[in-house]
Design a protein that fits this description.
single chain; alpha/beta; Protocatechuate 3,4-Dioxygenase, subunit A; 2 domains; five-stranded mixed β-sheet
């Protein structure tokens, strides 16, 4: 018998000093322990089981995915070629991409795109009014641990929309997820038609805190996809 089981049986044995078997153990106590252990271990297993992972909710791509990917499309949206963007509040946006088993999704690529500080996208549908120094779009491959990271600005609102960043996950030619990342506590969330359409659980998954640090704002956005 394992030491843990002996420790759990000890109080039961001491509490019932009645008829004993040849080894000196109270028969009623032993019977009760044998009956009770399956339920006890089942309860412990349930208590220690990891929480089930949920797929990251999908949302619309929107009208401003780049019509043509920029020549500079790395993870630093504050630099576009030789130009450096100085408006807005710098932020690190990072996270992981895993499957439902928690396994890093090797070979996955993460893309983000967003408007500049004035609320404009690099897209013909927005009149191509975005600041040329703001890259506006970035793409990175996840590392062996499924991690990804971008340097950009804390998202801002524009007419009809609360602050958000568009996110897409690809694996080779396949698009696994398109969604949007929201700012926790942003005043416009409750008025945004896409944010309001989410369930409470989905809002919690897509709405993340942006926290200040010595290096600007930081947020983490874990992504779970079905591969």
């Amino acid at each position: 018998m394992a030491a843990t089981q002996q420790a759990m049986l000890a109080p039961i044995m001491q509490a019932s000093p009645r008829r004993t078997n040849p080894r000196g153990l109270p028969r009623r106590s032993v019977t009760a322990a044998l009956i009770g252990f399956p339920a006890l271990w089942t309860g412990l297993a349930r208590a220690q089981a990891p929480a089930a992972r949920r797929l990251t909710p999908a949302q619309t791509e929107g009208p401003f995915y780049p019509a043509k990917l920029p020549a500079d499309s790395d993870n630093d949206l504050l630099r576009n070629g030789a130009l450096r963007y100085g408006a807005g509040e710098a932020a690190w946006v990072e996270g992981t991409v895993t499957d439902l088993d928690g396994k890093p999704l090797a070979g996955a690529a993460v893309e983000i795109w967003q408007c500049d500080q004035a609320g404009h996208y690099h897209h013909p549908g927005d009149g191509d009014r975005a600041d040329r120094a703001f890259q506006g779009f970035g793409r990175v491959m996840v590392d062996a641990q499924g991690r990804w990271r971008f340097r950009t600005i804390r998202p801002v609102p524009y007419t009809g929309r609360t602050p958000h960043i568009h996110v897409k996950v690809k694996l080779g030619p396949r698009e696994l997820l398109t969604t949007q990342l929201y700012v926790q506590g942003a005043p416009g969330n409750g008025r945004d038609f896409l944010w309001r359409s989410l369930s409470e659980e989905d809002r919690a998954a897509l709405t993340r805190p942006f926290e200040r640090s010595a290096d600007g704002w930081n947020t983490r956005f874990p992504i779970v996809v079905a591969a």
